[in-house]
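Morning F.,

Quick status update on the modeling queue. The single chain you submitted on Monday has been processed. Sequence for confirmation:
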Amino acid sequence: MSDPARELSRLLAERFQDAGELDTTFASDAHVRMAAHVSIRDWADRPLPRGMLDTLAAIALSSPTKSDMQSRDILVVTDPQRKAGLAALIAPDPWIAAAPALLVFCGNHRRQHQVADWRGVAFANEHLDWFFNAAVDASIVLGSFIVAAEAAGLGCCPISQIRNRAEAVSAFLELPERVFPVAGLAVGWPAGEGRISPRLPLSLTVHADGYQDAGDGATRATIDGYDQWRHARQPYRRQRRVRDLGTAGFYGWSEDKARQYSVSERADFGAYIRARGFKLD
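Structure tokens below.
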């Protein structure tokens, strides 16, 4: 790459409407690859070596972990029959079933309980933070795997729908007590280029020395501007819940997200996590 600083500036300007003042003089090829992230849902018919996936998993598991607890696991599913069964549980989307590999990133506190029992030490952390630590650990590894996979030329797409049927997925994967799925990940060689997804303005999501709350009016004006800016680049192809909510004259990001969460989803996840052996107090 001839000029990482210039390429990084271009990518960030495509991603953020207020990226004009960012300093990219330190940019490397690695920064450019990260800024160029796209989700891939179209896969090339090309073998994906299991050894490559295992190496990428090792790289991802080299990432930070809370207090060296290492409370996260990666399940790599490539066997065609097993992959088809898992895909059928997650969602009917064809791109999920077509992915050469499906990975499941899990929080795992089974080992910590085992260690406590083996050493004869009482476990005194049965509360929400213990579950949260495992979920964060798994999320860090998921992000690290995506960075590593994209650096190797692979495409990825995270799959949150795996939590829609968390109990069925757990039974299929034979997850023991205190092990739970955080997210899935479809992985393979891309069949084409994805699209850079515009993000909320940095003025809303990056805060200096403390949370900067501009107030509802200013925040709404910023999001309205983002809706228009994003719509000019990537308009939504369809509207959600038209039968119930009608057709919006203008359909931007905020309208889409409001409609998405107007339907209850995964309301049983707390009960599932408690049944896994966690307390959420």
